[in-house]
What we know:
Helices cover 24% and strands 34% of the residues. It contains two helices and seven strands. It has helices at 24-39, 79-96, and strands spanning 3-8, 15-19, 43-51, 57-66, 71-76, 119-124, 129-133.
Amino acid sequence: xxxxxxxxxxxxxxxxxxxxxxxxxDMIRAARIVKDMIRRGYALLVDTGVRNDKGQPIYRRxxxxxxxxxxxxxxxxxxxxxxxxxxxxxxxxxxxxxPSGPAPGAQDSAPRRRGPKxxxxxVKAQDVNVVAVSRSAGG
Length: 139
């Protein structure tokens, strides 16, 4: 399988990069371009291969790219663990709340964190399809 990156909304129209393991020169070129795109703020959305209940693909944003291994580093988390952590946060917030409640018009000084920070996982570029969108797209 050859992984592809579809780059949307560029000046010359849509562009496509291919990660072909049989062509090492193109793999190196594509890896450098992808790394530069992430540095410049492009959103690289990796197709996880999982479908939602409507049959639509589920995408995860690439946080980084490892040029030496041609792997995307994507945010990934287990929804069950996230739900447990949310419950723990809710329980601890109830225990630490003052009985009289906050003064009228007072706001919390620190925003509440919702669940754990997502972990990461690596995905080989040659095994997935990716959609890249520039920062200026859509507007």
